[in-house]
């Protein structure tokens, strides 16, 4: 092999090596970009998990609020019925007291008349 032939081969080899080193540099750059993208995707995935959990919690809270609203809608009717019963009982209470007072007065008068009649009959 002659000197010129070796120089050509070395020059060709150097060119091939430069091309290979450039490809390696490009690949390293691509790998850095992919790592950065992967990190961003992991962060996005974590954020999506948090959002999903928050959405589930919010959904449960909405269900609880709906149940409470339903109870509140039904409860006033029960409270109104209770209030009506209480008012009725309060209205009836003076009448019951009056009836009791009337019964006591009538019993007292009847007792007095019977006692008077018995004492007159028995000779008093």
Please render the helix and strand layout as text.
Layout: H1 3-121
Molecular structure report:
This protein is mostly helical and 124 residues long. Helices cover 96% and strands 0% of the residues. It starts with a helix and ends with a helix.
Helix percent band:
over 70%
Helix/strand order, N-terminal first:
H
Low-confidence stretches: none
- Average pLDDT works out at 85
Bulk shape: rod-shaped
In DSSP terms (H or I, runs of 4 or more residues), the helix count works out at 1
List keywords for this structure.
mainly alpha; rod-shaped
In short:
The chain has one helix at residues 3-121. The chain is an all-alpha fold.
